[in-house]
Write a structure and sequence with these properties.
By secondary structure, this protein is of the alpha+beta class. It is built from one helix and five strands.
Length: about 80
Amino acid sequence: MEEVETMETLEEFSEDALDHRVDIAEEYEFDCPHCWEKNSIILDLSVEAQSYIEDCTICCNPIEISYRAEDGLVIEFDAKSIEQ
């Protein structure tokens, strides 16, 4: 009987954890470091820090995107040119 009670408690805990997770997506605009045109991307602010490569939507050159988020806000953002 104790085993069933433990499983129910774990299931309740998992449901509570899912209810309280932060899932924040925000559109962010920046200037391409290659062509200087405006770009717009969606940032996942539930992740504290990320760095990845994204192509410019205008000139298609690669850009290294790095950002930090805290409490659902972008606190640091950088878009660097990747030389080809």
